[in-house]
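Attaching the record inline, Q. Sequence:
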Amino acid sequence: MAHIFFAASIQRHVATPEREIDARTLGEALEAVFAAQPRLRGYILDDQGALRQHLAVFIDGRRVRDRQHLSDAIGEESRVYVVQALSGG
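Structure, as predicted:
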């Protein structure tokens, strides 16, 4: 099973422990987490169901490409990291 992690900066708003998930896409993985933590959905996704701009998601060390439909593939041994994106000047 794949493993999903949420950064401490996200858990500050909604406690979301790391967990194993049975999913083939990022969308399926997030839906599994939202089933247990419904409040997290509004923090991770916008009104159209896309990833919010202030977040970065990595699957096996690669940044996800499909931020709107969340169709990036997840393997059985994948590691998914959801973190806040940093910006500044």
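Residues 2-84 form a domain with the Ubiquitin-like (UB roll) fold (CATH 3.10.20.30). Helices lie at 8-11, 26-36, 40-44.

More tomorrow.
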